[in-house]
Amino acid sequence: MSQRTLVILKPDAVRRGLIGEIIGRIERKAGWTIPAMELRTLDQETLETHYGEHKGKPFYEPLMGFMASGPVVVLVAEGERVIEGVRQLAGPTDPIAAAPGSIRGDFGTIVRENLIHASDSEESAERELKIFFPGLV
Ligand code: RTP
Ligand code: MG
């Protein structure tokens, strides 16, 4: 089943020059495409809408600060089971718990600075795609 998912390459990935490496892993999956992509610096309002589910948690404020600390790459990935698939490529939230071979497992050490966001369900994908790419048909 072809799907679309919202991916953000976080400010650490951009600062460290890892966007080509990470986009390459998405691009190389059979049949997946990237119908939209942009480099942007996210404002607080957009971030609050995106990460609203975490409001009130101890990591929320530092997460907001980190996500606004520099440009990010926002992109839409499309293809067979891409929602589950990009989550698999990313690995678990904690990069030390993430297996080598995954994006977080290969490049991350700090939980907050874990390089990539990817929608975690069909409902999240639908909601997040509207936030970042409202004009996408
Ligand atoms: P994401 O939403 O960014 O794709 O990551 P996720 O689903 O794997 O993890 P989630 O629980 O949704 O957390 C969102 C982001 O918040 C930061 N975080 N820091 N204990 C901490 O310091 C902590 N926990 C989470 C991470 O950047 C995580 O990706
Ligand atoms: Mg999440």
Explain how this protein is built.
- This protein is of the alpha+beta class and 137 residues long.
- The chain has a single domain, classed as 2-Layer Sandwich (Alpha-Beta Plaits).
- 39% of the residues lie in helices and 20% in strands.
- The protein contains seven helices and four strands; from the N terminus they run βααβααβααβα.
- It has a four-stranded antiparallel sheet.
- The relative contact order is 0.26.
- The mean pLDDT is 98.
- The protein binds ribavirin triphosphate and magnesium ion.
- Residues 54, 59, 63, 93, 111-112, 114, 117-118, 120 line the site of ribavirin triphosphate.
- The site of ribavirin triphosphate has 10 residues, from strand 4.
In short:
The chain is built from seven helices and four strands. With about 140 residues, it is an alpha+beta fold.
CATH classification, class level: Alpha Beta
Going by CATH, the architecture would be 2-Layer Sandwich
Main β-sheet description: 4 strands, antiparallel
Bound molecules: ribavirin triphosphate, magnesium ion
User: Averaged pLDDT, please?
Assistant: 98
Please give the count of helices. Answer: 7
CATH level-4 homologous superfamily: Nucleoside diphosphate kinase-like domain
The stretches of 5 or more residues where confidence is low (pLDDT under 50) are none
Subunit structure: Homotetramer.
Protein name: Nucleoside diphosphate kinase
Organism: Streptomyces melanogenes
Cofactor: Mg(2+)
